[in-house]
Amino acid sequence: MTRKCVCELCNCGRHRCAHQPTGLFEKSKQPCSVTEYAEKYPEYEGVHPRQSMKPKQEYKAGRDLMDGTTTFKSDYIPFEVTRRPGRVQEEYKPGSGHIDLGTTYKMDYNPYKVQAFVAARPKERLHATGAKLDTMPTYKDDFRAWEFSKREPTKPEPSYRPSSSKFANLTTFQNDFAPKGLVPRESFKPPNMARLSDAPFDSLTSHRISYIPHQLGAKFVKPKEDYKPSDQPFEDLTIHRCDFQGLPGELSKSCKPDFSKVTSDARFDGSTEFRDRFQQWPVTLPKVHKLPEYVTPEGHMDLSTTSNMDYVGHKVQPFIPKRPISRGRRSSVPFQGNTTMKEDFRKWEVRKQEMIKNKEEMGIPTGKFDGLSTFQAHYIPHQLNPIQSFKPQNVVTRSLAPFYDGTMYRTEYTLKKPDLCPASFQEPPGYVFDDVDHRGHKYFRKMLTPLGSKSILTNGIPVPSEVAVMS
Fold this sequence. Notes:
By secondary structure, the chain is low in regular secondary structure. Helix content is 14%, strand content 4%.
């Protein structure tokens, strides 16, 4: 007798047995997801994680009383500070006698008698003679001109000879062009006039001649079919209901405590953790440095300076400039404003040259504008006849032939029965539950004879007519 588990019966790949822990451990009925990693690499006992050598960042508060002294206060040694003695200025005493104006240059320099500089270059001597200067250069004296015949040019002599008469300001166009009157050109364009025909208008067209009206039949109206509900019950089986395995199990319990309203008539205690554990440390107040009180000195202030006491005034003559004093010269003679430009410049009378323009032969009309255009004067109105439309009327055509509603989908569609996975049922059809092994596989054995109330699918698996589904 063959036995198969749910993993072997499944042909869609979406069903699997709820595995138990491996055979190396004790058997328990609680399901667990066993993977290849968990089976090949079991957990070892006695192995603890490595402890970190990094110190914990915890604040360690001192338990002694807080001292208000700082490093500056403990290491600072006050010294006695005295006022720095001021420098006494010696009294100036002018020296007696004359000032020695001698310098190092005057003391070390010995004057010598120096003779005038004599140039070693001899003086230029000018040889002046009374003979006449020969101005013939070497080129003219040595050059001998060869006898060459002048080449006659092959260029023809210009025939243009400028006129010796006075320029009359007239161009060749003005001399040769004789103005002629405007001659109207005869138009060969036919007059644009409507030609009326005495013959009656022939309104026959090819459509009127060749068109043959046909009689249309009545349009086929498809009768409206009444809705007939199906006699078969509605199959509301979904993929979730087919593949869902309703395995018995306990619901997960929430770790959240039950909400219960606390009511108390006692007065609210306003104490906090900070108020309970706060320890007040004695702290001395910082010393405030007091400035010494200002005391005004006695007596008057000596405003004398070193410059006022030691300065000796000398009698010095003021600076006299060497530049002579400029004195403005004034003259009673009137200013002569004539210049060479004013005397020699003569202004010529220049007139603008008039434009050479022929007189217009066409006179401008004088009088009031009539307002009548050429189109209005020559236009002849004609009576228009509306064109008759030969377009057929837009009437719906109806046919007595029945409507053919056959499609390719209706002709070629083949109905197929659904192929259900046997592992989707709580008890696979054709199998009876046998037992569960230590790994969690549920084994079913195949029945020899099918039940009478079951039908057989296309793949040979019997399916019961009524299936119990857990939703």
